Each structure stands twice: as C-alpha cells, then as structure tokens.
Amino acid sequence: SPPASSSEPPEAVPKLRTRRIRGHKRKRLVDVKAEDPVIQSFLEADIFLKVSDKYLLSMVVEYFGRVGLPGHLYNRIHFFLALYIASDMEEDNPTSKRSIFQFLLGREHWPDLYKEFLKLKVEFFHAMGHRAWVTLELCEEIQAQNPNHWVWGRVRQCAP
Predict the structure, then answer these.
(1) For this UniProt entry, which residues form the secretion signal (predicted)?
(2) In sequence order, what are the residues at sequence separation of 6 or more whose Cβ sits closer than 8 angstroms to the Cβ of residue 74?
(3) Are 151 and 54 in contact (CB under 8 A)?
(4) pLDDT the model gives residue 15
C-alpha cells in the first residue's frame, strides 16, 4: 500500500516497480553501512536503539526509494539525512537527533556545521516529494524482503 502521506490513489502506485526499487535501495543501504566506519560506529554506539531501531532504518530505506537516486550515489550524508528525518517523524527527541550531528559532523565541529546539515535535510526532504510518513505496514514489508538480515534484529527495548 502507498504511504499514508502519498497524494496518489493506491491504484496509481505500481506495486512491482515500488518493490523492485525498494529492494535495490535496501541493498545499497546495507552496502553503505557495511563499508562506512562512521555509520558502523554510530549503530554500535546506539545501544538502546533510540535512533536506529529496525523501524527507523526501514524508513531510511523507504526514503532512499522516494528520492530515487541510483544506489551507488548514496553515501554517509544521505544515510544520516534520512535517519534524521525518520527520527524527527517518529521520535522528535533532541538528544537523539544531536547524536546524529555529533557522529556525522564530529563532536567539536557539529555546532558550527549543523545549520548546513539542516539545509541539506530540507533539500533531501524536497527530493522525497515532501513525503516523510511511512506506515508500520510498509516498514514491515521492507523488512520482509530480507527478514534474516541483522539490521532487522535491532528491536528497541525499554531503557533501564
């Protein structure tokens, strides 16, 4: 089913095309994470999964599909932009969002650079067609494409 924020009726969204694109973007997301030490460190540091649980990462995959770039063009900045938007949609926790800035921009430099990041976020959101809403069903559909992948095991638990 199309995302709830889609302005198109359900019959206007071709399912096979959407699934193929999503599968391609999922593969690229995995490649980016596997190769990028900053993303790896970020995921490892988020021990309570407050900003990188399986649902937020599913939203990143969907956002990549909505932007529609060829998979090889996605990189670290795209991952963190998409994750920031997902966190903004679902969590809106300033501390969690600040951790994104610190990992991407560096602990010393993020206060000087975050305004540029926010400008890029607006551009990325525009490229997504201003559609940030992702349904639970769509997240689960994305996860079902490769249900045994380690990233879908990132289930958030209550913090102690």
Answers:
(1) none
(2) 25, 28, 29, 32, 64
(3) yes
(4) 35
The DSSP code for 49 is: -
Give the pair of three-digit tokens for residue 40. Answer: 């790896």
pLDDT at 30: 56
Residue segments in the chain with a per-residue pLDDT below the cut of 70:
1-34, 159-160
